[in-house]
Each structure stands twice: as structure tokens, then as C-alpha cells.
Amino acid sequence: MTAHLSDQDIQRDAISGARILVGDMLMWSDLDSLDVPLAAREIVRAAIAAKRPRRVLLAGPRAGLLVDTVPADVPVDLLVRALPDARTLGDRAGLHRSADLYCGGLDVFEPAHTYDLVVALGGPERLLGPDSEGLTDGQTVARLSAMLDDGGRLVLDLANELGFTDLVSAVPDETLESDAGWHVGAHGFGSRHLFARERTTLLQGEGLHVEACFAALPTVDEHRVLVHEEAPRDDRLRDQVGFQAGLAMDEHFAATPMLREPRNVVERVVDGGLLDELAPAWLVVATKGAGVAAASYPAIVVAEPESDSPWSTVTVVAPDAAQSVSWAASRADTETSEGTVARGLAPLAQGRSFELDLRRACATRRHAAIRARVRRYAAWLSDNQTWTKQTAEQRFFATPANTLVDGDDLRLADRSWRRTGVVSAEDALVRGLRDFARRLLASGSAHPWRVTVTPDELTVTLGAMAGVTVTSVMIARVARIEAEVAATVAGRPEDIEELLARNLEQGEFSRDLPAPDEIGFRELLTHDRVISRELREKHGQVKWLEGTLRHRDRYIRSLERVIERYEDTLTYRAVEALRAPRRIATEKAVAVAKTTAQDALPPGALSKARQLAARMLK
């Protein structure tokens, strides 16, 4: 380690007191697009519980948001690259006894002391600025390991070069085309991220031992779900891993064209035991040195988005399948409510996704299979033993996306939501089928109906399979309830009418389709391939015809040259000279004969002769 940075060779921000290093970004903010890493917060809490740290380094803007997790009497250093973020985090770190802020790149961060807990999130893309010297993933790990005490812990996330996010997305990452993608192709950065087989070797090469590794979904910058590498091997947890991972990926791709259905892909990846190899990113906990006290880490962490929302929760599933649910805002109460909507802290149920089962039935294009599942769903919603006075208020939230299949039974996945006022079984069915139809068509998934079908039309068809006649009045009633719930949860009751209009419009036009007569994304790709093939065929035909025309042009030119040579001969000129008087005399003789015949014959005789000849020829 070099000497401690002095005030003589660095600058200080007058507002936050942050020390300005090389690689600072004065007019940029990472926190504008990033949220609190609630799932990673649970892992950091487990690491702190295993060993109280002496000094902590939080590197990166998302790691800086975890400053509240560090005990207030433990010195903490925060390193970010953007000055606005340093000022924001300075306010959050104000209650700590000692909190030093640094604004700049990791490549020039050389503190005089080491740490026994280092949390670095975002990789070199978030830890370095345009003026920094580029670092690969391996070099970043090496620098972080050098700052770690023997017996200390490193918590960092790593991007996977072979994550299944790239396997199902139909469009490139938008951030790479924006200013945030400045590092692409920049000097010093790696040409790719790590593969799963390289992860452990890289860490061991820097003197680190992997204590725990979690698959991070849906992206390296957004840890909605963390899955311990041992969890998919446990029969008690495998279904829950598949459901929660699929839900996170489905919400991440809600407005993005896809090549394949993400839930289906995730379920197969989990069932195949390949989640660690194909996860979009990993959150790794590594220790340095020997004799480190073992920590107890959760098997699954599920964090809902919008950490500042009073409705968001964090669910921690232990290795023995025990669950603990808390509010994202760390409140002590067990329930929140507003208007007719209420939510409590309820554990997640076990089972496989019913929506995925229904989508697979649609993909087979067998109406009998779809009808059987829709009738099963309708029977469950109308079962009075399931929806008693205590649970009837939850029926409105029993959409296929929030329903699990457990053997022969259906059950509610998230039982924490309630709405005052019992919704009838028919309205709950319409709401569930309409939500399923909207999501099915928006994702471009396979189904047996025409391409131009709208969600409302598909809702009518699915309802008919269950013997329910879905009317526009029922759809309008359900849409209004959905708008009221959405406005209440968003904290904007004045937006009910706007949300209602948008809800009704989504039923008339599929979300990803600009007009009712347009085709879906998958069908568009198929149509594009057909047109491309036809264009190639037409292009080949045009090339053949052009070659044929060129050949005929050459043949005609050769014939013209032969004729020209023949016309230049003495024989041809002599024959033409003899033919001209003879032709003229013949024409005059024919004309005189016609005139004599017309004069000698009675009127109309020639016309009758022509008609008689025509009849004879027939």
C-alpha cells in the first residue's frame, strides 16, 4: 500500500467533503438509474453478523447505498465515481461515527489502511470513469483483494459472459448504445466477462476462498433474486427457485421483445441444474486467509423493486426452507394499507407456475389441453372451501401469474395482498384470463389463435372454454378495479381515470402491437424470413433472366452482321432490282381484276360469297 492520500495532492468537494481522485465524473449520476440492492443487503448483513468488521469499504454507487447496513460505530469508506452520488451518499452516511468519501476511479484509490469487509458492486464499469485506467474483471478482483485484511471478507458481483439473458433477448442492451456504454472498446477493459468455470480459479489466484456464491437475477446491476448455488439441488427449494427466478426475468423483459419465453427458459435451466453456469451475474462472498469464522447465508433472497415504496417486501429463505419476510423500508409493523388495498407480511407458497403451465398448453396449439386448464382454474376460483370469508378478499389477486400448481391443487403464490370488497368468482376469472391474455400476446408467445387477436377477444374465447360469457360490461368493471388498485399502490389516486383508459386500451390492442392488424414479434421474424427467402429467389431469377437477355442480344447482333454482309453482295442487289418491276406489275394486275369482277357481278355478290365461304370453312 502507498502512503495515505494527503490534502496537498487531492481536492475536496466543499459540499460533501469527498476527496476528488482521478476518474471523477462531475456531471454524471449512477444513482439516477440504480436502486438500493435489497437482496445484496441481506448477504452483507449475514457477513457482518458472522464477524463484526473493524473497517469497511463500500465501492461503487450501489454498494454505497448499503451504508445504513454497516453499524454506526464502524468506520466506513465510500468510493464512487460521480460527484452528485458522493453528495447523496454523504447525507446517508451522516450518522456514522467515521465516514470518508472518495470520488474517482478504483485504479487510483490507494488508502493507507486495509479493510476486513469490502463490498464492491457493479464491476469495473461502475468503479471506473472515462479518465481512469481500464481494468479487467481479474485486475479489479486483484486490487480489491490487496485492500483486504487476512481473515476479511469480500462481497462483489461479477457479470457472466454466457448469461441466459442474452439467449432470450431479441434486442441488444440499450445501455451499450448510451453514454453508460463508454467503456465498450476502451483501452484496458476486458473484451468479455467471465465464464462460470473461470470464477473460482480467478478468486483463488488472488488468495481468496469462495465462501458462498449466488446466482444474481435479472442483471448485474439489479439483484432482484439471489439463489445460493446449493439451492437448486434441494427438492424443497427447486420449485420456488424456478418460480421466483422466472418471475424476476419475466418482469425484466415485460416491455422488451424476446426470442423465447423467459419463464420457460429459466424453469428448464433450473431443472437442468445449470443456473450457476447460465445466470446473468453472480454475487460472490470470498474470504482471505485461513481461520475465518463461517457465516450462515440464506438459500434464496427475493427483493421486490422500488425499495422506497411502502408496499415492497424482502423475503429471505433459509437452507431449511424457513422464511422470513420484512418490509424493504425496514419498518417494524406487519401490515400496510391505503384505501381498499392492504398488504401484510406473508411467506411465499410452494409450487410451480400455473401461468407457465397454461402457456405451454397454448404452445401445443391443442384447444383441449387449454380448455382443461382453464376449467380447472375457473373451478378453483369458484370453490367456496378455498375462498372463505377470511380469504375471499385475496381472490382478486389470484391471476395465473400469481398461482402455483402443487400436485393436483392450485394455490395462491403471494397471499399478502387483500382488497376490501369481495370480488365474484366470474369477475376474478375475467381478471385472471385477461391478465394472462395480455401478457401472452405482449410476449409474442405461441398460441393457436389468429395473429391479430386482441387481449379482450382472447379473454372472451378463454372464458367460453369455462362456460362463462365475458361481456364488455364485465371487462370494464374489472378494468376499473385494476385501475383503482394500481392508483392506490402508486400513491396517486388522482390518476384513476388515466389508468383506466390505459387499461382498456391495452385490452383493445396488444401491448407490443401498434395496431390491431399488425403481427406479433415472433410472427414478424417468421414473415421477415419468408420475405427474405422470396427476395433471394426473385434476385436469382432476375440474374438468370438478365443473363438470358444478354445471350439473346449477342445472338441478334451476330444475325444482323450476317444480314448486312448478305445485303452487300452483288447477287442480292441484282435480285432486288429484278423483283421490284415484277412486284409492281403483279399488284396492278390484281387491282384491275378486282375492279373488272366488281363491275361484272351483281351488287352484294362478293359479300354473299364471303359468307358462304365462311360457313363452308366451319
TrEMBL record:
Source domain of life: Bacteria
Protein name stated in the entry: Class I SAM-dependent methyltransferase
Species the sequence originates in: Terrabacter terrae
Lineage, uppermost ranks: Bacteria, Bacillati, Actinomycetota, Actinomycetes, Micrococcales
